[in-house]
Amino acid sequence: MGDWIGDLTEKKGVRPLLGMTGIYKHFPGVKALNGVNFRLFPGEVHALMGENGAGKSTLIKVLTGVYSIDRGSVELDGRQVAIHSPRQAQEAGISTVYQEVNLCPNLTVAENIFIGREPRAFGRIRWKEMNRRAERLLRERLQLEIDVSRPLADYSVAVQQLVAIARALNISAKVLILDEPTSSLDRGEVGQLFAVMRKLKEEGLAILFVTHFLDQVYDISDRITILRGGEFVGEYEAASLPRIELVSKMIGKEMEALEERPKTAGSARGPRELLLEASGLARQGAIEPFDLRIGKGEVVSLAGLLGSGRTELARLLFGADRSDQGKLRLGDSPGTIHSPRQAIDEGLAFCPENRKTEGIVDDLSVRENILLAMQATRGWLRMIPRRKQEELADEYIKALNINPPNPEQLVKNLSGGNQQKVLLARWLLTRPKLLILDEPTRGIDIGAKAEIQKLVLKLAGEGMAVLFISSELEEVVRVSDRIVVLRDRKVVKEMIEDDIGQQQVMRAIAGG
Amino acid sequence: MLLNRKYLPIAVTVFLFALMFLAGAFRYTGFFSLQVFFNLLIDNAFLLIVAVGMTFVIVSGGIDLSVGSMIALTTMISASLVQEQGWPPAVVIPLVLVLGTLFGWGMGAVIHYFKIQPFIVTLAGMFLARGLCYVISINTITIDHPFYQKMAQTKVSLPGGSFVSISVLIALVVVAAGVYVAHYTRLGRNVYALGGSEQSALLMGLPVARTKIAVYAISGFCSALAGVVFTFYMLSGYGLHAMGLELDTIASVVIGGTLLTGGVGYVAGTFFGVLIQGVIQTIISFEGTLSSWWTKIVIGLLLFLFILFQRLLLVRPAARKL
Known about the structure:
The structure holds 2 protein chains of 2 kinds. Chain A is α/β, with parallel strands linked by helices. Chain A folds into 2 domains: about 1-90 and about 220-255, Rossmann fold; about 275-510, 3-Layer(aba) Sandwich (Rossmann fold), CATH 3.40.50.300. Helices cover about 35% and strands about 25% of the residues of chain A. Chain A has a 6-stranded mixed β-sheet with strand order 6-9-10-3-11-12, sandwiched between helices. In chain A, strands 17-18-19-15-20-21 form a 6-stranded mixed β-sheet, sandwiched between helices. In chain B, the strands form 2 sheets. Chain B has a two-stranded antiparallel ribbon with strand order 1-4. At the A-B interface, helix 3 and strand 8 of A face helix 8 and helix 9 of B.
């Protein structure tokens, strides 16, 4: 349980518009929400913060009627309500604008605002009236002057977001939920959106704002509620919550309680042979220009909150996304990497974050999964002989301690940790010079975590370079020679061995 | 831009029809007359009716393969009841219309509630309806009831000495009703929303279930009505009537500028899509030496061109946003 009493902010004389108390929502095997509280006052922007799995999206889905709660109470305007469907939520005055704009791109702007509630006369839709109203709504409340009779698809995502907000406002929303609205907007567009949010706030709307960008949280929000692992951590005034504290509450380490762990990484191995060098590499909307050098046998970690650009950076290095400026050099080869295929040829390997959807092939056996990448580099015409396949699979099952040690077991029957090892084995088999691991330890148990960490260090000891991405500071600090800290899609700091400590890293993540 | 991009496909269709008609007029004497134009309508009235229903289905993002069989079944039921059982047409015609609507409604319900692809459900409906024809009879049943005779032979005179059939009037009413429903009613706009993004339609609180089922019910009604008109045209019921008509219908709708991916299309476009099919047939019959298979060849080529053209239209907006 969180410290509801202690960390609750006072707002004298104002009744919350929305009050959620002691909300529980369990899914099989997961306590998604465990006694969460949330209050929203009229005329405020309230940021809901938390790392992956904190329960933010579950809470929003509860509010919008997609999920129903197991226990707890939801009060709107002082009255107890039960929300069972998105439609019901809208009728109650709760509107949501999602990250992916949920409108119909083929319909006109005006229709997207009014569909379902078109002005009609004797059942006939009055188009002119509808267009006029849409124009007025956009102009007066959102300062947006566009041709409302054009299809929505003609406009940028930023405008589409505003149209989605206009639709929400038109349903006479009292509560507006903005779920990561800024993740695909550029700086100017974010400014435009924030101007609109400030205006709506003054008009008395209660806005729930979810974002991963710390700067934006402090820019726009009045109060902050933090969730962690489905638990309520606290509710704070944004102005009186230092960044560093916000981050430590999200990550779940109190500053004082951070103890320095003995480093297991090998200490100074002298100057290393340069393996990869990125200079000014960038991709618009994904990550701002950064420099990065990785040497042989080095473990470099990317630290930062979810959405800070860690995965985006790694994808650029691997050629999974095209960079739009800067240079990337690999060893002696001068060229830039354009495709994952080329990256693999150059000795890169990439274990993606989401092993379920981007890595593991559920219905193939452990052996087949392990051999997938190696076979791909050889081309499908040169089949690896079955005997050889079995030898290799056995070797890696033993080396990585994959359990059960049966190469013919279907991968879907393995635990998360063992699936991760199978994925690792797949890439190790290609003998990469640089291994990129994106959240290799997420969702696996502690024992398996430790094994994977040990393995990373062992591989580095053998001369392989590893780019390690993790949300867990402790793990990052333990395995890295060097830590690159990202915030809001920017590389903000690079830390080398001596000044690596959880406190310092956290401070860098939080920024000033 | 001079023309709103969303009207471009339909503009191309209208232009193409005009071009083909003029080409025929230059090449063949006697081609350029109102009556030739009206004959297009007379010969394709049933196709026009069924294509209006299909337009709704395709705009909603679905497909209905059962329409051809439904026409055959309607001719069969009508012929059997009128000719063999002696029922009055005033009972038989409303009955088949209700049956067709229910048939479509049922398919729509299966598609929505069991979340099965429309392709496979309506394929099943196609076989079912076609099979039921032969349960009634494996032979042609000729109709000589005076009402049907009258409907078949009545010529509605128009100024200038030309004429149309009653079926044409029915078809034009259906087209007009289709245009109205599509653009001026909530049901129509919900169909477009559904075709644009079902997920969004759901989150916007639109009645997705009702709309989806209604679309197939409309198509069922239209195919039954087309069946009635087809009965007037052929004066018989037969299990082999309207073989493969569902494909001609889909071709007309697509040539009329409706996107197979859903969300974009016009009933008026479909009207011209059907006329293009008709004008190709007419040109070939005027030519005299060409086999009727040339119709299929030209339709095939046109379909290819239209699909490519639509793809280009879809790709372009991604490149430039306001």
